[in-house]
Design goal:
13 strands; 5-stranded mixed β-sheet; homodimer; about 35% helix; globular; Nucleotidyltransferase, domain 5; 2 domains; alpha/beta
């Protein structure tokens, strides 16, 4: 009997690195994880990962064969096979693809989390029949994966999709990138918390959020407060949606996607973030684009979404 | 002796429609033009165009053979072969590709002016070796042609590249599209004239431009005044460059092009527009993109640039 082919999806996160063996229909056959330990060199992570993967695959190897490896990582560079200055890892420039291929002689590709999410949506999710769409990840930062004519847009140096660092207010909030007023300082999980603080300062109305120390405030708390009708929380979602909607309208005018997917921690706030974002996006769109571009949640609604995206990256190449 | 193949490039403008027979090396063998007469239906233009083309080709036909037709037109839609609600023509939706093909049984393609300029730069100009680049046309409006991975980006409905209608100031200048604060109300030939008026109102300093009635002011006059050191003209170029530079930085962060080309009436102001645009663009770029993306003039510096772009559109398809 011939063995069933699976891809190996790897998601390198700030805290944990998750891997999964995934069949061509998108079923995660088996999933494992190890701590990333970002203060150690990438070589050590890859060695530990190899050991864990081999142990995990032991019981699968009579039935399955591995045919390719996809990797999602913060600042993963598709062209160079590297992870470059990842925000929460002490790596500078790590040749992760090359390190993996020292253990595995099979097709391997790496990209960043948002690109992996986009290709995951294309291969396994709600964008199977779409050629042009955009995935926005609203987490600690704002990431963006762009699909044009059935291809991920990497750009000249592999770093396309930095929508999070486009400018909203030239003299606005300090961004981790060194600039001020970047979109992700407004439209992200920490961004909406900053907006709550701004409204707590500007308004006198009562709010459940006045009792929470700023350092402990999370976007989930803001969503919970909005659920209870808290006026500051609702104002914060409206403000976030206005800014995100304006920049998404720019994205639509520029690249004319079929749909935009919102994804990640802040997107879990559901209608609180979708409704104002959609409303303002429509208002900022040139008439020719209005009521044409749906704003959708990801169809990959499970905890394995990051590894599925990584797996989709290589599956897409194997099928090409 | 076998005949030399040529493409027929057609540029439909608000006033005139120009056509040219262009060989595969980009030489315009012969060029002609007729008035567009935009108040008449498109059928009539195409009929007159056919007659003029045939007359013009008469003396060429022993040496050359026509192998394809490329058309550039305002709001030309590649997918549908149409020109849709063109700003200066009374056509609503005109099936121009189909009309042309009633006279010519050969490969035909249509797109908008900015896309034609981009493909022209790729096929005949300075972008021959580039896979990812952007062409910005700064004329009556602001157009944008996007090349990603050697392909023009049309988007889901063929109207990608509407950078001119992205938002700079949500409550800013009234735009012809119905919105307020669109980029092209600032960065275009009429846009810089509006900026001159703004500074004439805000500042008390002397200016050559105070003697010109607003309805007669042109971007060329502003450039001439800047040439003479006029402080209002210089401020207007600086302001225009800041806004354009900020939005081009957004474009770079989003799509990571190898270079950006500036083109059209306002781009002819040379260093007055290039220098501030480049300076501010660099300031607004996330660090990872800085000093990597040159801002270049088009290499297609002649009056046939629009028909060359149109010709390039079809030549590119014939070669594919």
């Amino acid at each position: 009997m011939s063995k069933i082919p699976v891809t190996l999806g790897i998601d390198i996160g700030g805290t944990n690195t998750v891997f999964s063996f995934i069949d061509f229909d998108g079923n995660c056959i088996k999933t494992g994880q190890i701590p990333t330990r970002g203060q150690e060199p990438a070589e050590k992570l890859v060695k530990r990962l190899y050991e864990s993967i081999e142990k995990s695959f032991e019981e699968l190897k009579s039935l399955y064969k591995r045919v390719g490896i996809g990797i999602g990582a913060p600042n993963g560079n598709y062209f160079r096979g590297t992870v470059e200055y990842p925000p929460n890892l002490n790596w500078e420039i790590a040749p992760v693809k090359e390190l993996i291929q020292q253990y595995y002689d099979m097709p391997t590709a790496i990209t960043n989390d948002a690109n992996a999410a986009a290709i995951g949506e294309k291969v396994y999710g709600a964008a199977r029949d779409m050629k042009d769409f955009i995935v926005i990840t609203l987490g600690t930062g704002l990431g963006c994966g762009i699909m044009v004519n059935n291809q991920l847009v990497y750009g000249a140096d592999g770093f396309a999709g930095e929508l999070g660092h486009t400018t909203v207010f030239p003299d606005g909030r300090q961004c981790g990138c060194g600039k001020r007023g970047c979109l992700e300082t407004y439209a992200s999980a920490p961004g909406i918390c900053k907006t709550v603080l701004m409204f707590l300062a500007e308004e006198t109305i009562d709010s459940l959020l006045r009792t929470i120390p700023p350092a402990q405030l999370t976007s989930k708390m803001v969503a919970n407060a909005a659920q209870k009708g808290d006026p500051i929380a609702l104002k914060a979602f409206n403000y976030t949606g206005r800014i995100l909607g304006m920049k998404l309208a720019d994205v639509v005018a520029f690249s004319s996607p079929e749909a935009i997917f919102l994804f990640g921690g802040l997107a879990k706030s559901g209608t609180f973030i979708f409704e104002p974002t959609k409303k303002y996006m429509e208002g900022f769109l040139p008439p020719v684009f209005r009521n044409k571009v749906p704003l959708l949640p990801s169809a990959l609604k499970n905890k394995n979404i990051a590894v599925m995206g990584a797996s989709a990256l290589i599956l897409n190449e194997l099928k090409a």
